[in-house]
Amino acid sequence: MKIYNKKYLFAALFASFLVVGCSNDDDSMNPTPPTMEADFTGTFSQVDHMGRPGINTVLNGSADNKNMHNKTIPSNMQATFQASFQARLEALHDAYAVLLGADPADINYEPNILGDILNGAEPTSEANPNIVSAEVLTTVLSNDVLEVAPNAPTVYFDGGAGAPSFEGAIGFTGRKLQDDVIDVSLILLFGGETGARFNGEGGLPQLVTDGVAITADNITTSFPYIGAPE
Amino acid sequence: MKKIKIIAVLGIILAAPIFIAADHVDAPGVAGSSADIADFYAFEPTEGSDNTVFIVDVQSNVLPDLTYGEFDEDVLIEINIDLDGDLVEDQVIQAIPRDGIMYFFGPFSPSSTGLNSQIDTNTALGSVEISSNTAITSTTSNGVSLFAGPRQDAFYFDFVRFNQVIAPTAEDKSGFNVPGTDTFDGANTLSIALEVPNSLLGTPTAQNVIGVPVYKTWVTTNRKQ
């Protein structure tokens, strides 16, 4: 069963602008000294930003862009970075094309498994094209925020049974400590429509997994959920 | 034209030998400083829970010579939560250390949004003693669990190989190794963790690509001027 529908992609891209108010000024009870004893005055200016993992690291190429990204508010990010993210994605493909002895013009980003999933039961074809173009993918990623669902299980992304059915695919509901965000990112950037385009076979480089998993003692089952320092 | 672009990319890659995800050492302006965000997690702690957990990691000792060890009293950590999908924060939670204690404020609706912040002392949430190796936690009267201290860096990535993968040579262009080597195994980071009842954050009208209501969240570090 495919639970995705492409309309939701566009619903997300053109989200509504309703205002939700909420006020929570509850007093707190603490075992530690009251906050009034400490000085909290002053203005604090933003120096670093993070939403999804790896966005600034991978998709911003220059030092100036990396620094600028950390000081850009999310509502300005798409206008500022989408075009350069798209160019960077293409350039990373070109760099490998050169090493593989191919014409860079022949090795381009290929729409990824998200498009297959969002297309639903109909197979991707000329009449039903994969909608996750480089522009669509970098548009979503340029809005560098992490979505977390308050009332759904957290899965960064799981392609389910994989190509071609993607049975059980689920995701975009947050980031758990154990989620393999690197492999997900590699698959979406380099995996193409099967998720395994550059899979280390047939003379191609392995670009869709880094081959590592979480270390068991990094996480715990109770708050604060992260393991004691080593 | 095409060739110029390729050379430029390779030049950038070769000029940046330290190149780490998820957000560790992500930009020269903040890399290795006490304000360098290493990672950000947001999740439902158990299936069906009415709480959301936020974990922010700053600093890391994954590489020698990086600043690591103590929270900086001049650095304000801010978790931003957008409810309506306009990518502007509707709720913020702030954390800043003073004399061995991490103080938390919010969630509150900020009077102004953007790149500059003040601490809203009228919205004190609670505080927790900064832990050493054994985790010390506290729970506020409105049900928020708090933690601050050194923890293992839970991020996993073969970043040594990654640096080679993005700078392929004629002799080595095979991509990642399977299995690889987790560079972050054994690394530590400074974490803050909060488990917050969703009722304190508000009900989101924003949705993800599959139509599920979501908070759109991000974390910032902010240095005192």
TrEMBL record, chain A:
PROSITE patterns: PROKAR_LIPOPROTEIN. Residues 1-25 form the signal peptide. Pfam families: DUF4331. This is Uncharacterized protein DUF4331. Keywords: Signal.
Automatic annotation (TrEMBL), chain B:
InterPro entries: DUF4331. Keywords: Signal. It holds the Pfam family DUF4331. Residues 1-21 form the signal peptide. This is Uncharacterized protein DUF4331. The lineage of its organism: Bacteria, Pseudomonadati, Bacteroidota, Flavobacteriia, Flavobacteriales.
